[in-house]
Every structure is written in structure tokens, then in C-alpha cells.
Amino acid sequence: MKINSTTQVDEIKQTLKTLFNKNIEVLTTSGNIAGDNRKVRALTSNENVEFPVVIQSESFDGFLRQCKRRLGLKIIIPKTSKEAIESLINSQSNTFEIGNLNFQQIPDYFMRLFSILLKQKNYSGCVELNRSLIQFVNANIQYYWLLPLASRVFDIVGDDEEIDFTYSISWFGLNVDHDKLTVVFDEVRDIINAEAPFEQAKDFKWYISEKDREERINGDTFIAAVLKKNNAKMEDFEDPIKSELLFNLCISTFCISSEKWINNCQSESEDLVESLATLYWTVIESVGSENQVLNEFTNHLPIFVIENLIGEEIENYNSEENSEYSSYRDYSIDWKAVAASIHEGAGFGINDYGPLGAGFCNSDELESSIGQITNTENLVALKSGSYMGSKDLPSNKMSIVDFLMIQHFFGDSWLMPTSAELKEMYDLRANDDYNFELSECYISSENPNVLSTGVLFFDDGEFDERNGKIFAGKIRMVKREMD
Hints:
The chain is α+β, with helices and mostly antiparallel strands.
């Protein structure tokens, strides 16, 4: 298709309908659904595009990737009406809901929703959305992938020069069992059952557990392993409701299983990269179902996850357009280079960091610690008539986001210290009876929606204003006597 600056959205939609029998929507640079009469020149996010641009691809996904890379044109595949995202945005009440959106629409929905919240500097709205998203994932574990997605999208939106506001996702309250979303990849080729002298994707197996992998029983493709683990059948992909559940389940399982495999792999770096590329290849290559929609999903799954959860543009590794890269097996994409970049980077961000930082913080554990603060008799009396209580919490990091996420545990009578109370606490620090540590720091603000005000450091306390993290060993709470 030849695309000129004056090509209209409707022409692109008609072409894709004719070539691939796909209904699509084109988005504006701000993420809204573009009208059929909008011209491409107003929708491209790439500077210095030289029109006309000829898009040639035998596959629908390839067509979309070329539009994105060469034109900066964002195209989505709606399963709902084109007003679906608009309607969900307009009805948003800071309580997370997915509506009828399919997995392909969710990244764009997040981008638009989070942009609105940050532009409004709606901190309490972000926290409420964060809390309800955690609750939603707890109740619907197939949507686990939304958490690393939300974390990345908040970072992207926060980097916008027009938005002078940031927010960092808190994982507090999450109780998803990773084992339920894990299948195990074996990077060692199953030579005994191989059907050809050369490597085939089906020579590398996925297993539902580490035990099965060690015993090499019931190995299969990635999709088959996910279905087996969840007592589902291939026929379930024919059902619109079941298929959407399984698509999301496969995305969450792929990102968790891939990250676990990387963390557990004992190979040297170069061998690990080679095996990671093989891991991706076994998923992309494992098509063959009579269900064409499932084949397209499987073929595109690693690309969708890597682009949306990590931010790597797969088309940038196309060996046909970049001499820096080499083809990988029968693919023009240099999957070994993709694997190397992911191995050297931050990964999928599925570490479940709790509200207090390194390591998951269990709700019961935190509630018990806070109970020891609220029930202690050793409260420090302040001039204001309030009392201060303290307790070592399970980890060593806290942020205002996290405090707002856990605030309900303290009850109405417990608050973060005011500036005046902080000053008094600082003065009391020299009193050995209170056992204040020199590295302590406190969070305080008359308005907890303001991230960077009212923070007092004791000596070498650190504060990272970018993500609102305060490094401290203890949290001090002030109890107000209720009338």
C-alpha cells in the first residue's frame, strides 16, 4: 500500500480489510481513536517522514509493525465498537475495570487513562486506581501482566515534558501465586524424540512443573503446557469469552515463565542468550492449530510482551533493514540480539516488590507489625498532645504511595507526622530513651497528595524524588487522640 500525507484513515481501514480481513482503528498521537476522514500527516508521530511510504508485507502483523516504525502510526484491533475505549475513559471512577476491551487494546487504554490522571496531578486517584488494580488482579490472575504494564506506562507518561507529575506503582496487597502462572522451558534439545537431524521448534519442550522437566515427561509446546496446567482444551479458543481469558493467561504466563527461566538459568552469558532466543523461537514457531486466530496470537505473543512490557521495538532488530543485525533461523528479526538486550536490561519487572521495597510484603505480616505499633504502651508524648509510636517494618524502603496504600490498617487515629511534630521528634532524637537511629527519616506532609514536601532526613537518609522512594529502617506514626 502506498501511503501519502493526505491518505485518510478510511483508506487504510479498507485496505487492511481487503488484504487481511481485519477491522482496525487508527489512533491519534494522544491515543484517541481517529476519525475516518483524518489524514495520515496529522497522525504520524515520526518526524521527517518522506512521503509516499510504501508498506509491503505478507502478514497483518508485519504491516502493523511497518506502519508503527516507518510512520509512527498506531493501529489497534478492536473487538468492541470504536467508542469502547472512549466510553471506558469517560466512565472512569478511579476503580479499575477492563470493560469489554481485549488484550490488544489495554496498552492504549492505560496510556490514555494514566495520562489523564497525571495531567490532573490526581495523586489520590492514582492510588485508588493502583489499589483497585491490585484487587482486580488478585481476583483475575490471568491479568497479572497488567501490573508490569501499568508500571511501565506510568514511567512513560511521567517522562512527558508536558506532565510535571509522576507516580510509581505499589504492589502492596498482591497475593498471586507465581507457580500458577509458570510453565518450565527446557533449553536442552530432546534429541531422542527428534524427527529430523536439524533443530525444530518442537524438539524443545515446555513442562507444567520443574518436576516434569527433570523427569522429561509430558513435554509439549508453550500453549499446550499452559492449557494442560489450567485444565483447558484447545477447543476453548473457539469460545469468545474463554479465548480472551486464555489469551491473557498466556501473556501473564509467558512473562513470568521467561523471567523465572532467565533468573534460574545457570549457563554462561553467551549460552544463556542463545537459549533465550531459542525460547522465543519455540513459541513463535509453534503454530499449526486449525484456529487461525490462535496461530496469529502465538506467532505474535513474544513480540507483544517484549514491546509492551519491556519497551523494545522488535522491528528495530530487522536484519533486512539494519546491517548491524543478522537473520535468526528463518526470521529476518535478530532474535539473538533481542535476547541479549533483554538479558542485559531490567527484564519484565515481575519481582513483586512490596510497598516497603525489596521483597514481597505480606498483608498479614504488615498488619501484625502495625498492630504492635497501635497497641504498644511505650508511646512518646508530644507537645501537641499526640503520641508517637514506632516499629521496625519487614523491609527497608517506603514511599508516600505505599503509605496511602496501607493507610487503612492504621485506623483514623493514626497519621503521618506533621512538620511541627517532625521537628519535635528530631529534637528528641538525642534522648537515648527513645533509641532513635541516626539513619532514620520520616515522611510528612500536611497534604499527603504532595510527593516532595515535608520530608525530613536524619543524617544519611536518602530520597529519590523521581520515584518517591524513601530509604529508612523504621516508620514513625503519630496517634491523634480522637474527640
